[in-house]
Amino acid sequence: MPHPLVPGRKSPQVNPPRVRKVAGSEPLRPAAAHTPSAPAVTAAPAAVAAVPPPAVAGVPAAASAPPAGPAPGSGQDMAREQPERASYEHRLGVQDRLAAWVCDLSLLHELTERLARTALLDDTLREVVQAGGTLVGARRGLISLSPADGLGPDTTVGLGLGHADLGALETVAFGSVPPGAEEVLHPDLRHGPGSLGRQREVAAQLGLGAGYGLALAVDRTVSAPDPANSSTSGPAASSGPGDTAALLSDPSDENLRDFSTGVADFSTADDGSPAPLAETAPYTEPAPFAEAAPFAEAAPYTEPKPRPAPAARRHRLGQVVWFYDEAAEPTARQRRLTGMYLRFAAEHIARGLDLARSRQAAADLAAEMLPARLPRVPGVRMAVRHRGGPRGGGDWYDALPLPEGALGLAVGGVTGAGPGAVAARDRLRASLRAYAVMEGEDPVAVLSDLELLLRLTEPARSATALFGHVCAPQDAGGRRVTLAGAGHCPPLLVGDHRCEFVETSLSAPLNMLSCWEAPSVELRVRPGESLVLFTDGLLHRTGDCADRAFARVHAAARSATGAVREDPGRLADHLLHTVLPGGLDRTGGEEDLVLLVARFD
Which residue numbers delimit the PPM-type phosphatase domain (predicted)? Predict the structure, then answer.
């Protein structure tokens, strides 16, 4: 045979490897093809089968005999004859159970992914009650949030239920989970043994057949006191760097006191010069060590006490209840899936609750820094609308009485968002108040001083502002208003005979140029007219360019009826709802929004 690699050369003959024979390892030789194969097991002759087994000393004959196999045709023999069929049915059952588990896990994964995408607390509550209805097979339900710490917020969100339905359910406490319980089941609300007359009436009115509720609770770990680390007297109880320093400087310790004295005597003499060696303390032999106690008398070794694990305590957040149209109850699988989902949902709700509380606290603090109520000035009625952003912005407003019956109106905004912008806004507004009292008749001087203060104290921040000085009413009727703006939106004058923007001079925001200066504008406001001051948040929330946004504000002011123009509060609401339809004027938008309306009678 030719070599596969070297041409012209024959391949060496390869013999199969020889296997060494081991006793008892030689395989059985198959029977010849032309002869019938002998049976593997042959029946023993009757004479051989009748011979009893040899007796073993000390062992009964019945015990030494081999156990008899199953009789032919018995049930065990038939079960052995059908191993494949039983194994196939078992595999099908296992596959069905695995498929059911995969479906359940996929459903839980999808629902938890949808829940994780919710950002606001109200959206989270709606998603939880809707997902739970999918798991238990109910189309109506409610989730009631009432934290056990009493800090709120307390709210109720319904699924397929209106406000009147929620009020009726709260009167009869349907589905309320008792304290200490995890779930409650009402399999028949109309004819059940535990239903009262009022409950049956409400259930029949709303078409409710059964209810199933679960408690919303999370585990809060509480550190248990450790008796081993409790504070005791003596150096062994010290812990921390401060305690260690106190131990090293404790003069009550005899060893430390003698050691420090010896060092002092060895270092210096009475006159401050180095002491001679002969005057030092004499050398003393160290005390011999005490003999070690025998091993048998030594104290036995004791295992250190384990530190107590932090205890988990259930913190109640609220409850979720679902309602069936007919008398029914969820299956064991539905209860298990719903419980697994609510454990994840409770943690997500707890995080959303903490975030909502933090946002509410920040919003309340920011709102308290602005004027809670506007001043009462004869002949002037005012209204303001402020909508804060999610992080807190720098838009502000102010209205303050000035000497000689005058009035100061101001709106503005600081760049940035968050606590820093809120703090800068409050500092800027307080400074403007001081400058307005001293030189309010000249709005340009007020803004110039404000710009100088901003450049010296916060050089990395800029701001816009609009300040107006309204004089006392004159004999001829009307009021004289002097305005000055720094990069701010012009105000809008609304009346029965005119609706126009006041053309203030074009100027840069504060702290944008090395020296800010802009002329002021004077106008006369007639009785029955309103001056509308607003920030750029009103324009940005529209989503349009500046020209279109200004046109929308102007059109909204012109469309106001006479009854709306007479009330500054109604005029402010009309402008907000017309310029920002579809809930764009709600609190929590992308930017802050301020709208100040002053009507002159």
Answer: 377-600
